[in-house]
Amino acid sequence: MGPTRSGLLDLRRVLRRLRRLRGHAAGRILFTRAPMTPEMILSVRAALLLGLFGLVLLVFYIDREGLRDVADGTVSLWDVVYFTMVTVTTVGYGDIVPVSLSARMIDAFLVTPIRIFVWFIFFGTAYQLVIQRVIEDWRMQRLQRRLDGHVVICGFSNSGKSAVLELVAAGVAPEDILVIDRDEQQIRVAVEHGVVGLHGEATREEMLRVAAVERARGIIVAVARDDAALMIVVTARASGCLGRVVAIVHERENVKLLRNAGADVVVTPWTFGGYLLADAIMQIHTADLIQDTLCHEGKLTLHERAPHTSEVGCLARELPYSLVYGVVRNGKRLMFWEEAELRIAASDQLIVVDAGPRSARA
């Protein structure tokens, strides 16, 4: 048994409330896969047009006595065909006119709505299959000219979404983040966060070139399969990507493969998560502290920065407002426990723990 009328009304109220909560009353909630190919769409719409023309032709032919041909006074079958075509597609030429009340009522209440519906079909088909693609090509050209120093995220699952949120919290403009995903629904969710979305396979060189990876600041590969991640890294480097490439790997034995393929950093989230889970059992506070330092909005933040002018020449262990975890000098990382008398140079890169979120210190 289908839903009752009261049930449908309740559903409409629920949907309106959900749309208001999302911030735009006209926003779509339901997304389904397109059931037909463009060829099938054209075939169905052509059949619908033929059906509408056939309906009007049949009605006019039955009521042909209500039509008058000013040329010869008789209305044949071919006259009815001609009158149907010019009446449905235009307002007619006046050579054949309805003279009876029934013919005029048919033209007013049947043909006029069909005429409007036919034009909707024409314009809708033109927009969907031609105009929309032209507009998309033009927007892609504008995007290509603008993209420079952006971040490309391949895959918008849980990890990809978290990366987007953290980048935005760190000060990266949403329009400088480009997400590629094969799932259209995931792309729609990503666009809701203000980023640029591309629907397609990130493993394809053409898609990465559209994303302008050669001018990207970096690429985050957060797909579900290691073989796809490996292909994306290889393809990105082959496409001229010079930025940092960070990839997620799910099987530990694939870490070396991704590094050899060109990934600068390989993250094993399941292993790292396992460490945190085990540590949370054995310790009371360390797991929360580690998560807090990694989050941009945490009370403590572990991050990299250049030394301030007032810090140059100071001992690394004696900075008043930062806890120096390590110093990167000439490509080598020096930890705080290795050199107690380590003094900071202007060219150093500091790995520090600061109090408060990075946004508050910016």
Task: Summarize, please.
This protein has helices spanning 5-21, 38-62, 77-89, 101-146, 158-169, 184-192, 205-210, 226-238, 255-261, 269-282, 286-294, 358-361; strands spanning 67-69, 96-98, 151-154, 177-181, 196-199, 218-221, 244-248, 265-267, 300-305, 322-329, 332-335, 349-355. The strands form 3 sheets. Strands 5-4-3-6-7-8 form a 6-stranded parallel sheet, sandwiched between helices. A 4-stranded antiparallel sheet has the order 9-12-10-11. It has a two-stranded antiparallel ribbon with strand order 1-2.
Q: Structural class, from secondary structure content?
A: alpha/beta
CATH class of the largest domain: Alpha Beta
Number of helices: 12
Query: In what range is the share of β-strand residues?
Result: 15-25%
Query: What proportion of the residues is helical, as a percent range?
Result: 40-55%
End-to-end CA span: 60 Å
As for the CATH topology of the largest domain, it is Rossmann fold
CATH superfamily of the largest domain: NAD(P)-binding Rossmann-like Domain
Oligomerization status of the protein chains: single chain
Order of helices and strands: HHEHEHEHEHEHEHEHEHHEEEEH
Report the radius of gyration as a whole number of Å: 33 Å
Stretches where pLDDT is under 50 for at least 5 consecutive residues are none
